[in-house]
Design brief:
With about 140 residues, this protein is mainly alpha-helical. Helices cover about 60% and strands about 0% of the residues.
Length: about 140
């Protein structure tokens, strides 16, 4: 992977200074290893490095400012909220009420039984079938 010139690599200098300040810090060692392997760090890792570097007393302010500018330049990555799932078909409550009203009075009505089966299986009723239900409602009820 392409490695920047070490004379102007501020992130590497900050990692070295943090390591010299506390050689036992596992976080800094893991960041150094990843930076050597991949050549870059994620925005969250750089933010963590910035917080650790602020605690180092002899850290030059211009290095911290450069690191802060690198962090600000990186894009924010965030997960979008999970979309609320809605069913593909919404039952028409009015059609369900008409079907149940007709079947309460005439439980053996074959066409309405067919439409009830279709309604219960979440199959959408066509406009003609809804008009047919309305006609049955006027005639029978």
């Amino acid at each position: 992977m392409f490695k920047k010139d070490s004379s102007i690599d501020v992130i590497d200098k900050i990692l070295d200074a943090c390591y010299r300040h506390n050689p036992d810090a596992l976080f800094i060692m893991s960041l150094m290893h990843q930076y050597e392997e991949r050549g870059s760090l994620s925005k969250k890792q750089l933010q963590g490095l910035y917080l650790k570097a602020q605690n180092v007393k002899d850290m030059p302010a211009n290095w911290l400012a450069t690191l802060e500018a690198v962090i600000a330049k990186m894009p924010n990555r965030f997960k979008s909220e999970k979309a609320e799932s809605t069913p593909l078909y919404q039952k028409d409550e009015e059609a369900g009420n008409i079907i149940s009203a007709i079947l309460n009075k005439y439980p053996q009505h074959k066409r309405v039984l067919y439409l009830q089966a279709k309604y219960n299986n979440n199959d959408p009723l066509t406009a003609a079938e809804i008009a047919e239900l309305e006609k049955f409602k006027k005639l029978l009820l």
